[in-house]
Write the structure tokens for this entry.
Amino acid sequence: MNLNDFLIPTQDICRRPGPFDRVVLTSRVRLARNLQELPFPGRANKQERQQLLQTVKPVIETMPVMKEGFSEEIAKLTDLDRQILVERHLISRELAKKTQGAAMVLSVDETFCVMINEEDHLRMQAILPGLQIKEAWKAIDKLDTMVETKLPIAFSSQFGYLTACPTNVGTGIRVSAMLHLPGLVIAEHMQQTITAVNKLGLAVRGLYGEGTEALGNVFQISNQMTLGESELEIIERLNKVVLQVIENEENARAKLLETKPEMLFNQIGRAYGILTNSHIISSKEAKNLLSLLRLGLDLGYFPDVDPAVVDELFIVTEPAHIQYEAKNKDGEALKKTPEERDIRRASLLRESLEKMPGPVMDASGSPKD
Amino acid sequence: MNLNDFLIPTQDICRRPGPFDRVVLTSRVRLARNLQELPFPGRANKQERQQLLQTVKPVIETMPVMKEGFSEEIAKLTDLDRQILVERHLISRELAKKTQGAAMVLSVDETFCVMINEEDHLRMQAILPGLQIKEAWKAIDKLDTMVETKLPIAFSSQFGYLTACPTNVGTGIRVSAMLHLPGLVIAEHMQQTITAVNKLGLAVRGLYGEGTEALGNVFQISNQMTLGESELEIIERLNKVVLQVIENEENARAKLLETKPEMLFNQIGRAYGILTNSHIISSKEAKNLLSLLRLGLDLGYFPDVDPAVVDELFIVTEPAHIQYEAKNKDGEALKKTPEERDIRRASLLRESLEKMPGPVMDASGSPKD
């Protein structure tokens, strides 16, 4: 099956509601698991990786949640498909680079995705919209329990689950929430927030995880430790911290509206003006401006606009999505240069926002009727 | 009479046509003259300056071209009025600062303005729209001839007209044209143009003359030398150079359209987007963006827009004009802080351009029908 026929249309993905979805984009729980007696993927040779794949893939494919899912070896996907999956946060950038013995199995609702032969033999994740860390944990825990009845998972009574990297040993769990924090960034409270969150043993990262920039004011908060705490303790702590960050973000927005409304209008208005009128725009600039547009929507300055329209633009203006759109619409050649993509991205943004009226605001800081 | 009741409304000023007015805003010829036996203004004491004023002012006022003109001592004008006159390029920044014995006489059509006790006893200028250097020269020469029959002008058979600063001695003439050169700036040919013009003995200066920035891509070209050449030779040379610069500017625009249309659209589109959506904007940024809007108009991207609307915004977004508008419209207090003016300026721009549709252009570089 063609990947793009399988994937949920971006507008539908962006319309799935979730708790606290003014601030929280998605919640994710990922478990790292390895099979006993077999070398970790980084040490395994080609044959060993292939053997593991043959053992594991059919098991995952037959899990009830994976019914009618999408299962494929990475080597059999095109470069563009791999990039599309990365841009949708379904697989990691690391997996996308692995061409030997690596595979992915994705559920039809895109809640579950299992990566095979990434850093570990198995990386199983559940992703849900909004703040649903506990729900994501329950979902992946259930899958994990079923998988463990079928496969001999490496577990030590002393260390817990064994993983390729010692930072994952123990529970093998990575819990994360993706947050949109334009208020804290504009109010210049983000550094302070990061420091506070770090002190609680949690990491704050950019849009694409470890070592990436916080494009579009999107930050990932995740646990650092996997050892010495139960899964539920880790989840409880992360949930509590995320709720606090949400409150801080909402307070920052309210304070900005009260004390610096013009500064806020100016940033939101200019973002709208540039997005609707540029003819060359980078992915980075587009994300940062779309973040301001989304903030304007949250504050009520675009009364009749569906937030999903703006959220969808975050995804479809990514490089691979731009290439895909150009190919589908005009049959254009796949390999676009970054300069060509910047022109295409600007034209897509102008067309998509053409019918979206400008922000309406009065000097009091309230949205105009 | 109130200055603002006297001044020609900005929209009318901007509707006066002139030759080559796609590029040339105005042409100006200024003559420096001094009376015999009296100290130059910089050396004169208060009484001497006052005495000169009493002698000269009535003579200028009774010149035929000054019929129903505006004649006033600088000390009797408000700070705001003086700034308004500077922003309209009718008096110099130096005259605006002189409170003792300084005066101005302005003709009803604003073509003629005589400054009394600026650096010289008399500085008489004629300003015309577009490229009309020769016409401006004829106009001011006629006035000068009449003035010389009424006042004992200092003239040496060896040096010519005597002036306070030796750089003006001889003809006492300063001929200048104000040019809008966005094409040369965007194509990065401006430095080269300045060097070439300098080599021909002419100066290139910013929007407000000597030592000022070229805000809004507006440059003044003027003669440096006043000695050893006749007025007509100076004028001929300047006219020839300006015609060459106009040609270079038009070529630069055509070349940009041909080779980098997206870059050009991108700059013009973004300028429009920001001007119509900002809530805080400095005078400098506004001018630079309005320059791009005017370029877009010249290139046909705003088919139904009157260029006078954009040209007027160049003037009315200047600081004193913003204060004056706020005072007139809302009775707001005169002293606005720069921050308050930046907010007011943004709101004026949004309102003025509200009904102006965005640029229409297709990928070929041609304006869309």
Q: What stands out?
A: Residues 146 and 209 of chain B are 28 Å apart (CA to CA). Chain B touches chain A at residues 262-263, 265-266, 269-270, 272-280, 343, 346, 358-359 (CB under 8 Å).
